[in-house]
Specification:
The protein is mostly beta strands. The protein has a single domain, classed as TolB, C-terminal domain (Neuraminidase), CATH 2.120.10.30. It is 0% helix and 47% strand.
Length: 291
């Protein structure tokens, strides 16, 4: 389980995408929290820390633990249902769970594909009926594949949308539910060189969105469908490691890309959907080290 390094702290910020103005909402030198979600009512942020999930008012205050009903410790892949009544989480047993806030009683959503298969959740469809996740399979000999899948929240068969040797991650629905955004190394022969893509929900019509020397992860579409925010790692980065100098970047409606925030972070900074409901602000986590 990830913890803060000596002299490190975790900071939770909200940034205005128009003005670039940042506001520190919460910080800790003891607890490493990650991956803020914004609740649909615009009043709270959700973060994970030490295998648990917490709620925090956007104006600051104290973290309040959200009961998860005794499931295994969770990681930083969690999303909220569109109505805000249920949280879906990825747990350390490799499975996905739905936990209604009203009851706190968990229900396993994912199917059992064997001990060599793990689920990492990233998106929920706008109608709240389908989850988009990354299926990580460890093949014979130790090779790992990561592909995009969807799964009905009420139970049923998985649908595999990609089937290739390229690392794929960060699958998330468009606001109209017709597309899935993700990052992948499919466009480069250089290991680690992930770029952003989108495709139809049947896995067809794959389109590349970024074409640069940096390593781009976790595309998040604004609720109004106009912008995409993502985490950009330095060239040559492998995966999405912690404790790197990264840039949060924004793709504008006209396709132009601009830097929004530079920070020390990476893993945990913005793994999950983190837009405010009004599409004006983004929440993220930074992990500065004392100089």
């Amino acid at each position: 389980m990830r913890v803060l390094r000596p002299g490190q702290r975790a900071e939770l910020f909200i940034v205005d995408v128009e003005t670039g103005e940042r506001r520190l909402v919460y910080e800790s030198s003891a607890l490493l929290f990650e991956a803020p979600n914004w609740t649909p009512d615009g009043k709270h942020l959700l973060v994970n820390a030490e295998g648990l999930l917490y709620r925090l008012p956007i104006d600051g205050g104290h973290l309040a633990e959200i009961p998860l009903g005794g499931i295994p410790p969770i990681n930083n892949d969690h999303v909220l249902s569109p109505d805000g009544e249920t949280v879906y989480v990825s747990a350390d047993d490799g499975h996905l769970y739905a936990i209604p806030f009203a009851t706190g009683l968990p229900r396993r959503v994912s199917n059992d594909h064997g001990d060599d298969f793990r689920h990492f959740l990233h998106g929920v469809s706008p109608d709240g009926e389908t989850l988009a996740y990354i299926g990580l399979r460890t093949e014979a000999g130790g090779a790992v594949t990561t592909n995009v899948f969807t799964l009905p929240v009420s139970g049923g068969e998985d649908t595999q949308l990609t089937d290739d040797p390229f690392p794929n991650d960060g699958s998330e629905y468009s606001t109209d539910g017709r597309l899935i955004y993700f990052n992948s190394e499919r466009a480069s022969a250089n290991p680690g060189h992930a770029q952003l893509f989108r495709m139809s929900t049947d896995g067809s019509s794959v389109e590349q969105l970024t074409h640069d020397e940096r390593v781009n992860w976790f595309p998040h579409v604004s609720p109004d469908g106009e912008r995409i925010v993502y985490v950009s790692f330095p060239p040559g980065t492998i995966g999405h490691p912690a404790d790197h100098d990264v840039i949060i970047r924004l793709i504008e409606p006209d396709g132009a890309v601009r830097d929004l925030v530079s920070l020390f972070g990476g893993q945990g900074t913005m793994n999950v959907p983190s837009w405010s409901p009004d599409s004006r602000q983004v929440a993220y986590a930074a992990y500065p080290l004392r100089s």
